[in-house]
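tool=predict chain=A
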Amino acid sequence: MNGPDFVGLVGVAAYLSAYGLLQLGTLKVEDNRYALLNALGALLILYSLLYDFNLASFVTQSAWLILTAIGFIRSQGKRSRTARS
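tool=predict ok
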């Protein structure tokens, strides 16, 4: 196993951790750690794709990263509105 493959597997572990912790009730979708694990997973897999490119994986990971960022920003907006109330 080479370095980029290992980095990609760490990204997969981040995704699976986020999903598993969500399903177990340890994390909630609004939890910043959930967004962090998802973003980290996407970034690490995108890094690994620099060395062994796959278009379908690149599109999937890019979309996942963008959607995670959108969700994080929306969640932060809701929190700030709730805090002001």
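The radius of gyration is 15 Å. The CA atoms of residues 78 and 84 lie 10 Å apart.
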